[in-house]
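Input record (Table S2, row 299):
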Amino acid sequence: MSKKILVIGSSNTDMTIKSPRLPAPGETILGGTFVMGPGGKGANQAVAASRLGGDVTFICKVGRDMFGENAVKGYQKEGIDTSHTLYSDQASGTALILVDDSGENCIAVAPGANGDLSPADIDSVADVIKKADYLILQLEIPVESVLRAAKIAHEAGVYVILNPAPACKLPEEIFKYISLITPNQTESALMTGIEVKDEASRTKAIESFHKMGVKDVIVTLGSKGSLVCQGNEQIMVEALKVKAVDATAAGDTFCGAVCVALSEGKTLEEAARFATKASALTVQKMGAQSSIPYITDIK
Ligand code: RIB
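Output record (alpha-D-ribofuranose complex):
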């Protein structure tokens, strides 16, 4: 029987403009193209896990508006279980994204209903959390809610994956509930207080996560790849050389893919290698969910 993957997190509508370069503060740039589509780190990770073969339930909070309604319909079409969707009187989450010619982006998110997903909401879905095999969390919903979900899951023996994005300072307590954390170098520095600039400082940061109680760590290094750390072992997984069009949702694809591979019994290193292929496909297309590959694309 396939393992149950539960994703709790944000659902956004992304409005993306691709332009030759990112504007400086106060500057207006002409000559871009516009696309609108579903996004949000939680939703992207749920969609990635589902397209790559996972049995996925997604819990998010959306507004009672057209954006929220369309988003949930979209998740259902992906084969994701949305029966525990929560509703808010706030507007559904929205993200404004700018992408330059090299695929680099900058993003501003108006959380709206995502910011309304409370610890009490988490308590209302505690039974669903306890029945999952894997729980994936990110930081686009309130930190107290992420903490509550991680605690419930950990106490029920669920493997908890935290993608600590967007970066923010976390309460010390949360780390002992996390089985796998997947920070990039900036997030890693913010959480451990250790600036990651070379191999030695990276090792120190990883040791610091282990000391805080996290079992497994994958530090993502952008176009360089990722560093997989299980116990004392560190393995560098090189990125694939591709031409990036838009990096949006590459990290989300990576997380969803790692979880699916682990749920199929792969090792952490094998999971990272599989996720590297998936995210290399994501960066070659525009948009968030529009760029996330299916398992057939990888094969
Ligand atoms: O990680 C990419 C996502 O970040 C986008 O889809 C956007 O909605 C923001 O949440």
